[in-house]
Design goal:
There is one protein chain. The longest helix is centred in the middle third of the chain and has 19 residues, at 107-125. Helix content is 6%, strand content 39%. Strands 4, 6, 7, 9, 10, 11, 13, 16, 19, 21, 23 and 25 form a twelve-stranded parallel sheet that branches. A seven-stranded parallel sheet has the order 8-5-24-22-20-17-14, with no helix packed on it. The protein has one helix at 107-125; strands at 2-7, 14-17, 27-29, 50-54, 57-61, 65-67, 69-72, 80-81, 88-89, 92-94, 104-105, 146-148, 151-155, 159-161, 166-169, 176-180, 184-186, 192-195, 203-207, 211-213, 218-225, 229-231, 236-243, 247-251, 254-256, 276-277, 288-294, 301-306, 312-319. The chain has one helix and 29 strands. β28 (301-306) and β29 (312-319) form a beta hairpin.
Length: 320
C-alpha cells in the first residue's frame, strides 16, 4: 500500500484517480470453478467515480436517490432533466453552466471520464480466453435461475435475467465479466444475488447496445452500455450506469456506486491482486488528508487533486 498527503492550503479539494411449500432449482454453471483463468478487474479510470455517466441525456422522474457523482458529456447541462442536486449524494458535473442548480461545470473532467469509459468498454469486450462451453451463451441467453461462478461469459446476441433471480457465487476478489453482443434485459422484480462474499464492484456488464432494468428489480455491478441505460420505476442498483453515446433514464430509482475495498486478503501480506484507491481520511480535512492506494504490479500511477470546477490543481503522484 502507498499513501500521500495533500495539504489543503486554505482550499477544499476533492480527489480523483486517473490512473447486485415452494421448491427451487439452482443450476450451477460451470461445474468446475477452475474452468477459466481468473479475470482481473476492468480499470474504469476517471469513469469509476461516477454512479451515472451519459453522453446525450440524463432524465429522472422524481424522486430518485443516487450515491456517487453524476456526469453528462458532451451534451449540454440543460439535458440533465428532472434530477436535482438534493437527490445526489455526490456532484452533478456538466460541460457548461446550463445544468441544474448546484451542478458543477467540469468539461475537462467529463471528457476524461468518457474517454476512460470507452477504454474500459473495449477492454471488457476484448477479454480472453474466448468463452466456450458453459461460459458461452449460458442459459441459452437467459441466466435467470442460474448460479454462476466467476469468469468471463459471452452472449452472442441479447442477454436476459427474467423469470427467476440469478446468483453470482464467489469470493470478495473474484471477478465476473459479461460480454453481451447486443442488449441486456432485466425483468421486473428479478434480483442479482451475491453469495460467498462476491462484491458488486467486481462485476462488469459490457452491453453492445442498450440495457433495460425492469420495475423493482435489484441489480448488481457496473453497466457499460455502448448506447443507453434505462431503469423502470423502483429499480435498485448497487453499481454504476455508464452510457457511451446516448442516455441514462431513471424513474424513482436508487443507484449506489460501489466503494473500493482493499484487495489484500486478511492475514495475507502479499501484493494486492487489483488496483485500489481508498477514500481519503480525514474528510473534510485541515490542514492535511491521507490518500491510500494499491497496485498489484509495477505501474505508472497518476494521482491528482481536482477542485470543484474540475480543474487539476495538484499532482500528488506521477511516476512508477
Amino acid at each position: 500500500m502507498n499513501s500521500r498527503s495533500a495539504q489543503s492550503a486554505g482550499r477544499t479539494y476533492r480527489w480523483i484517480c486517473v490512473s447486485t411449500l415452494v421448491l427451487s432449482l439452482a443450476i450451477i454453471l460451470p461445474a468446475a470453478s477452475n474452468a477459466q483463468p481468473p479475470q482481473a478487474p476492468v480499470a474504469l479510470g476517471d469513469a469509476g467515480g461516477f454512479a451515472v455517466l451519459a453522453a446525450s441525456l440524463i432524465s429522472s422522474v422524481p424522486t430518485s436517490a443516487i450515491v456517487g457523482n453524476v456526469g453528462l458529456s458532451p451534451a449540454s447541462g440543460s439535458e440533465v432533466t428532472g434530477l436535482t442536486a438534493g437527490e445526489v449524494d455526490g456532484i452533478i458535473y456538466t460541460v457548461d453552466a446550463s445544468g441544474p442548480a448546484g451542478s458543477v461545470t467540469a468539461a475537462e473532467l467529463l471528457t476524461a471520464a468518457q474517454g476512460a469509459l470507452t477504454t474500459a468498454f473495449n477492454d471488457a469486450a476484448g477479454r480472453t480466453p474466448i468463452p466456450a462451453g458453459d461460459f458461452l451463451n449460458p442459459g441459452v441467453g437467459n441466466i435467470g435461475g442460474l448460479t454462476l461462478v466467476p469468469g468471463l461469459y459471452k452472449f452472442t446476441t441479447d442477454a436476459a435475467i427474467t423469470g427467476s433471480d440469478v446468483t453470482l457465487s464467489g469470493t470478495s476478489t473474484d471477478v465476473w465479466i459479461f460480454q453481451i453482443a447486443s442488449g441486456l434485459n432485466v425483468g421486473s422484480d428479478v434480483q442479482v444475488i451475491l453469495a460467498g462474499g462476491a462484491q458488486a464492484q467486481n462485476i462488469y456488464w459490457q452491453v453492445g447496445t442498450s440495457a433495460t432494468l425492469g420495475t423493482n428489480c435489484v441489480f448488481k455491478g457496473t453497466i457499460m452500455a455502448d448506447q443507453s441505460v434505462s431503469l423502470d420505476t423502483g429499480a435498485t442498483v448497487d453499481g454504476r450506469l455508464l452510457a457511451r453515446i446516448a442516455a441514462v433514464t431513471l424513474d424513482a430509482v436508487v443507484v449506489t456506486r460501489p466503494e473500493t475495498v482493499s484487495s489484500v486478503p486478511e492475514g495475507d501480506e502479499a501484493l494486492p491482486r487489483t488496483f485500489a484507491l481508498e477514500q481519503n481520511y480525514p474528510n473534510p480535512f485541515n490542514p492535511s488528508t491521507r490518500i491510500s492506494f494499491a497496485v498489484p504490479e509495477q505501474s505508472h500511477v497518476d494521482l491528482a487533486v481536482y477542485d470543484l470546477r474540475g480543474r487539476r490543481v495538484e499532482t500528488l503522484v506521477d511516476g512508477e
